[in-house]
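Deliverable D4.2, example record:
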Amino acid sequence: MSKFISQKRIDKKIIENVLGISVEAKAAKHQDFNVINATSGTYYDDDGNMHVFKCVDHNFKNCDYNHDLTYSGIIGPKEMSIVIPEHIFGDDVFEEFKDYKFHTISTMGGTGAITMAFCNYSDMDTYILLPSIRWPSYYQIADNHNLKPLDYILFDEEGHFNFQDLDNKIEYVKRYQDKIQIVINDPCQNPTGYSMSKEEYLHLVQLLNEKANDSFHITLLLDIAYLDYGRRNGDETRDNFKLLKELSDNVQVLFAFSASKTFGIYGLRLGALVNMSKNEQEIEEFINVTKFFARATWSNPNHFAVNLVCDTFFDNTSKQEFLEELRQVSNHLIERGTILTNVLDEYNVPYTPYRGGFFVFINYNDVRFLNIIKENKVYAIEMNHGLRIAVSSISHNEAKRLGHIIGKAYQEVINK
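Output generated by the structure prediction step:
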């Protein structure tokens, strides 16, 4: 027992080591070109170089120290409450959602936005609903703030969003508390690459409206870190967001946006938490609690990064050039994912439905299978339910080669 560390903190340990494994994989790749590094949620081109968007390169080369390296405001510039909603929902957002108010607070990456939502929209020692197959950090963030993670089974037997289990878990929670926060990562879910359909959004709205009432309130946190890497550059999901206008006043929607992912500025750490509400009081309370949380946690966001985002989105020429470049990157990711899954199909390897984004998820985790993968110089992320493959960090040729490695390993194990 430590003499110094808080007794409430002494047992806290990281339950995953994604970043550590990624560092190990990079070192191995440097020593041996035949190594396949499928660990990193960072987009690399087919030559193995991290892609740098032209607007990012321009802002670095033209950095104004007095403008970019000074302190920003606690919530970031007011322009973020214009450009981020426009990017998430479309340029016509303020007309399409004319009955709603939006407020945006800049955060330290998408992780900061998620942490802010967890802490301010869930009470300590209460349940928070998380998908059963998920980004591991959700659990750690919840545990770090003394929340009780409760899994809803993500997929039904047909490979669609499992509304029945989400319904069951909401009913269970209602026995013990008067509100619940539900986390959905869409589109291009990490680690599966799954994106919800229009029909699934309609079902979600119907379910939440049925469950929420004046004595039981629901916060829906949509983690949209991979919004721009979905089908049609995320426009299919943007269309689905319009359906959220049908949610009742007993359902609050928050969006966790990641500029780190959209702009490929992973290490600069910039995200945003966006509140969409008709209720002026809810907006005011959101501003107060998130501003307090930010000041007490990281103080203020990365000034260079928020200037980069605002500069790019406010200049229409820069914006259109960036969006076109983003389209190309998104298409390359889908091409890699499709190459990989086509080969997996040849070997009947089970994987969750891939609809875009950085990851493909192999729905199989037999130890013998995983060992064969490692023996073939493949680095990937092992999870409780399977194996996460980052198509973002492999080339088109590696995607095909990796498909055969995985397929042969799977067949070897199941035929023994």
